[in-house]
Amino acid sequence: MKANEKEVDMRYLSFDIECGDGQHRCEFGYVITDDHFSVVEKEVLIINPDKKFNLTGRPHQDDLILFFPEETYYAGEQFPYYYQRIKDLLKEKDQIVIGHSVANDAGFLRTACKRYKLDPIDFYFFDSQKVYSEYANEKGRISLENAGEILHLEKPAFLHKSDEDALLTLQMMQKMCESLSVSLSELKDLCPTANGNSRNFNIYYVGSSLPEMLEALSKNVNSLSNARKAKCIKQFAEKVETNGPIINSKISGCKLCFSTAFEKSNIKDVLVIIQLLANHGCQYNTKVSENDYYIATQEELETAEVEEHSRYYSALHNTETKCKVISFDQLYEMLSITEDEVKAAPWPKIGKKKATKKKVYSTGVARSTIGDQLKAKGIDLSKLFKTE
Questions:
Q1: Closest to 349 (Cα-Cα) out of 272, 286, 296
Q2: Predicted model pTM
Q3: Backbone φ, ψ for residue 227 (5° rounding)
Q4: Which domain holds residue 185?
Q5: Is residue 221 part of a domain?
Q6: Which of 183, 212, 241 is the last residue of a domain?
Q7: 46 SS3 class
Q8: Confidence grade of residue 213 (pLDDT, cut at 50, 70, 90)
Q9: Any idea what DSSP says for residue 77?
Q10: How many other CB atoms are found less than 10 A from the CB of residue 324?
Q11: 190 with 122, same domain?
Q12: Cα dihedral sign for 81, 87, 93, 96?
């Protein structure tokens, strides 16, 4: 199916690669759609792997049956013949490249380029497998087939035919976008950790380093899941450096923390406060029993029933702790700053060097995803990922 003459402002390209031995590619299948997921081009390139097929009878692995017979693959051209075409497809401007577990397919391209001494194919991508894991709160990696079944997508007539798998990947993305009432570009912003790139023979997912997480949050405070926010806070507390000489004050040298609920809902304030604490020679440490102060919100101070196992509960009931409960107003007074000044402060950044004094941060936050935030906005993801 060839592209029509219609001019498309933004297009989506989904691709999939099949291998004859788990390493050397024998198919490159792709589907191109417009920004409404309407297919404008769909094709599979048959590539001679120039290697022996090894897909059946393998120990501890399921047999894998490809769509075409081996003779068809061996009759095809080898990878260098398709190199420039594949490169042009993946590097086309104004498009989003999509794949399921893209790191694997990008790895196959890397292996082929190295084998034939070709320059690496550098491109950006968006991974449907990571999107699904983020939104469904799945720790493991889900196969394209299983994800399609859960999302009630029509099963392809033949699995492991690369252009059909590429189409199923697009349909999976479309289903999630429609269920969440967002565009694919908006989905990319909501799930930055599914974005990545293949560059100079290295495959890298963005949004995992501290500077990238801070940048993503500065652009959109809801761009990271609660789990990623907790990771960002942890890493920032470990790496934050003072903005000049340490300020001597009543709070200098102390350890303190506040609730996980405050962390999740006030991520910018949390990071700003951690920076201010570092300026006063303090450590942000969530192990309450080791702390000098627990900073309670007004809601916590006024509540009659304290949630057991919470940090606030530990601060109030641990008889062995020296932790003192104070309000945020008292904290701001110790830091010689107002709440308005905290909120007006710019997003903190991290320096290139690690702090010389190690910052302590204990975790214990329950795993959650961006899906939790969307549920709070009235979007029920359980309906999207419910199996029948």
A1: 272
A2: 0.64
A3: -65, -40
A4: 11-212
A5: no
A6: 212
A7: strand
A8: confident
A9: B
A10: 13
A11: yes
A12: positive
